[in-house]
Amino acid sequence: MSSKMQSSGSIAQARRTVQQLRLEASIERIKVSKASSDLMRYCGEHAKNDPLLMGIPASENPFKDKKPCTVL
Amino acid sequence: MRSPPIPEMATQEVQLSETLAHLKTESDTLKGKLEEERAKLHDVELHQVAEKVEGLGQFVMKTRRTLKGHGNKVLCMDWCKDKRRIVSSSQDGKVIVWDAFTTNKEHAVTMPCTWVMACAYAPSGCAVACGGLDNKCSVYPLSLDKNENLAAKKKSVAMHTNYLSACSFTNSDMQILTSSGDGTCALWDVESGQLLQSFHGHAADVLCLDLAPSETGNTFVSGGCDKKANVWDMRSGQCIQSFETHESDINNSSEADREVAIYSKESIIFGVSSVDFSLSGRLLFGGYNDYTINVWDVLKGTRVSILFGHENRVSTLRVSPDGTAFCTGSWDHTLRTWA
């Protein structure tokens, strides 16, 4: 491969890298403090609907059956 | 210095290396800017913000069902939207559909290859997808007739140039997202087998993927051997964001609209092969190479429970669609549901 072809290949790759970095640099970002409070709020709002978190009575959880179903 | 055969070629060569140097400088500058931006935004740690949040009490979770039937390591599993059926795949080359309430096997398919590393349930519950060392992702419609040979209706959908590491249906039975040891992810039309979009950017094997949960969500995250977790736009094929971690490989990824938590969890957890969040996102379950499952408080960054039961590495873990239980698959050939 001629050195010219090698350079063109590397240039194409370098261009892609620069394009990708420009894209990432342009993404809107928020502070961790804001993201964290958003996360906390989300967890709080959905907590009561989270069976593994809240624990639901055995009678309501099909997996918690004490006696396995038997086919008669 | 040797003299070039033609003067123009020399000039072109010089121009090319100048352009290359120019691009390298710009890329270094951009990388520096990105690091600066990220550092500026990192004003506090999640657990500091969550200090006032009430701590979690004791958790009593144990194995409620054990699914036995695979002849070798269980590599992957997925829940059906009906919250009771499960599909699992194994090194033994078999894909099994189970009723997790009764532990009955409803369907079994023998794949033409061993190491079926990926499997997924279709949203309708009417089909499953799987693949592995065959480099493909195939879809099997599930028949109500137990005697019917499922392999006869098999549809080859995805073709990669290396092993299939993960697959997932999107919002419908019509499209499948795959990740592969060939370093790419791809979106496929199930009916025609057509490649709809490919995702290039990982520098090595892609090991896992997870879709954003929302109805309108068009993003997914993938993790790979290049230590990167990439967030992708499904429509354009663009990598929107890239996270680098200190872990050796990213074996499992779990998407939420909560990227901060994911990123911070990636750096805390070691030796974990599979993770999933509870419904509210407060709990993170991790299946580990030391045979245990650790339960983490996502906000506080502390471990709340450690669960024992498997007799070998936990390879796959998923919370059920209604969040009432989670299922694990292990190299000990079994699956367990926990609640």
Automatic annotation (TrEMBL), chain A:
Cell location: Cell membrane
CDD domains in the cross-refs: GGL
Membrane topology: Lipid-anchor
Domain G protein gamma: 7-72
SUPFAM superfamilies with a match to the protein in the record: Transducin (heterotrimeric G protein), gamma chain (SSF48670)
GO MF annotations in UniProt: G-protein beta-subunit binding
PROSITE patterns: G_PROTEIN_GAMMA
Domain of life, per lineage: Eukaryota
GO CC annotation terms, alphabetical: heterotrimeric G-protein complex
Pfam families, alphabetized: G-gamma
InterPro entries assigned: G-protein_gamma, G-protein_gamma-like_dom, GGL_sf
GO BP of this protein: G protein-coupled receptor signaling pathway
The entry's keywords: Cell membrane, Lipoprotein, Membrane, Methylation, Prenylation, Transducer
PANTHER family documented for this protein: GUANINE NUCLEOTIDE-BINDING PROTEIN GAMMA SUBUNIT
Function: Guanine nucleotide-binding proteins (G proteins) are involved as a modulator or transducer in various transmembrane signaling systems. The beta and gamma chains are required for the GTPase activity, for replacement of GDP by GTP, and for G protein-effector interaction.
Subunit text: G proteins are composed of 3 units; alpha, beta and gamma.
UniProt similarity note: Belongs to the G protein gamma family.
Name of the protein this chain belongs to: Guanine nucleotide-binding protein subunit gamma
Species per Swiss-Prot/TrEMBL record: Scophthalmus maximus (Turbot)
From TrEMBL, chain B:
WD repeats: 67-108, 157-198, 199-242, 272-306, 307-339
InterPro entries reported in the protein's UniProt record: G-protein_beta_1-5, WD40/YVTN_repeat-like_dom_sf, WD40_G-protein_beta-like, WD40_PAC1, WD40_repeat_CS, WD40_repeat_dom_sf, WD40_rpt
Keyword list, A-Z: Repeat, Transducer, WD repeat
GO biological process terms, semicolon-separated: signal transduction
Annotated SUPFAM superfamilies: WD40 repeat-like
One Pfam family per UniProt: WD40
CDD domains for this protein: WD40
Gene3D superfamilies: YVTN repeat-like/Quinoprotein amine dehydrogenase (2.130.10.10)
Keyword Coiled coil: no
Transmembrane segments: none
Family stated for the protein in its record: Belongs to the WD repeat G protein beta family.
PANTHER family assigned: GUANINE NUCLEOTIDE-BINDING PROTEIN BETA G PROTEIN BETA
Name of protein: G protein subunit beta 5
Organism, scientific name: Scophthalmus maximus (Turbot)
Originating gene: gnb5a
